[in-house]
Amino acid sequence: MKDSVLKKEFQKRDVERLRNLIKGKHGNRTTMGIGYNGETQEDHKEGDIWEEKGKTWTIRDGIRENVTKLDKIKKAAVPLFCPKCKQVMDKQLDPFYFKAYGECLDCRAKTETQMKITGTWENYTKQTYNAEIDQQIQEYKNWFENILIDTADGFVSENGEVQKWVGGIDKDRAQQSLDEVIKYLNSLKK
Fold this sequence. Notes:
This protein is mainly alpha-helical.
């Protein structure tokens, strides 16, 4: 039988590694790592927007993302999985519930059931109803302001004829009408 002779010479780091393993220091380093550290990165928080190398960046849900022109479409897109329960959103009504509440139909049903159990359902429905009325009032005010700003003295018909109109809007009467509509909409609140 031949004698097995180790013909390889151990390097210093190999010996140090074996010593660390024998002593139970498995995580200790035996060599120094080197590398290019370059520019130091700035620390950013959730929602910060900054520009770096010609691109605009932000942090959403703890993930660094670049800001693009398609961000509005990204928000409108429905993900494959519900962010709350991590289940596949494959039911027919899931896209509608996700766009409205940010969760799938099943999660929304559980949330509403929990509200009914805890007794917060009535308050929630009142707040939602009143917020919808407030939105209608705001939209009506915006429409009203646009009508008053529009000082067109003429009108172009389908035939291309320019018609000059005389008179205009009675602003006091229009304001009175606006106040009456807002009063009526506020009376509808619960």
